[in-house]
């Protein structure tokens, strides 16, 4: 092959003789021990391939043999200088990028001070102070979780998808603004009938069968009840809400009887939740604490 054909075979987009000669003079296929001959008709494709393949690592084609990952299946594999703006990449060899490789290009603040243009600077993305943008490796995770919350994906699904044991950790990654949350609430067009009504409930005959309860994730007060499951955290403000309403009430005999009945049922809920907690049911611990606080509140009212 001519020297121009050798350049093209190695992936160098050079077409004039002089440029090809200069490039081939500086090209080594054996790790720098020697350089190619820049004269015409010194190499065939077979010769080039023999030199290239002899430079492969001993464990080729394995990228990571211990994990059974071949180079052809590697998630991230580059050619040397593939992202360089001033140098041509070598398409015939491989480069395994490291954390530091990406760190310098997307996150390192000092690289800008030394004159290096990161990927944001190369494409014209700067902040208000004229400095190129930076991105930390964990920020995409926060972004994807926030998008999931905007899309109203359930907390349990987000936790599972993110590989979290505790769904409560989702809140750290949720950056939905208060304004957006308010807009969502307004879009629901809530009316008074959507809320639990402050109506007295009978001491017997509740729609919930308290003789055959299978789980204890139930809000129960003298004003009503809401059935949930252990995955949903109990409302932290419900007891405070009920306390404020009870301050204006005079405890009548009928109210006391109803409250005593409610207490018995809350004790049932607490005992069922205690068993769930001991069995390791996720979220049962929060509901157990809730029932204990509710009992404390009811006992305080009955003792007044």
Describe this structure in words.
This protein has 13 helices and 4 strands. About 5% of the residues have low confidence. Strands 1-2 form a two-stranded antiparallel sheet. The chain has a two-stranded antiparallel sheet with strand order 3-4. The radius of gyration is 34 Å and the shape is elongated. The protein has 3 domains: 94 residues, no CATH class; 50 residues; 86 residues, no CATH class. Helix 1 packs across helix 2. With 304 residues, it is mostly helical.
SSE order, as H and E?
A: HHHEEHHHHHHHEEHHH
What separation lies between the terminal Cα atoms? 102 Å
| Number of alpha- plus pi-helical segments | 13
Strand order of the largest sheet: 1-2
Write a compact overview of the structure shown.
By secondary structure, the chain is mainly α.
Key descriptive features of the protein:
two-stranded antiparallel sheet, two-stranded antiparallel ribbon, mainly alpha, 43% helix, 13 helices
List the helices and strands and how they pair.
Layout: H1 3-9, H2 17-25, H3 45-54, E1 62-64, E2 69-70, H4 99-106, H5 110-113, H6 119-122, H7 139-150, H8 155-162, H9 170-173, H10 178-188, E3 218-221, E4 224-227, H11 238-246, H12 253-278, H13 284-303
Helix pairs in contact: 1-2, 12-13
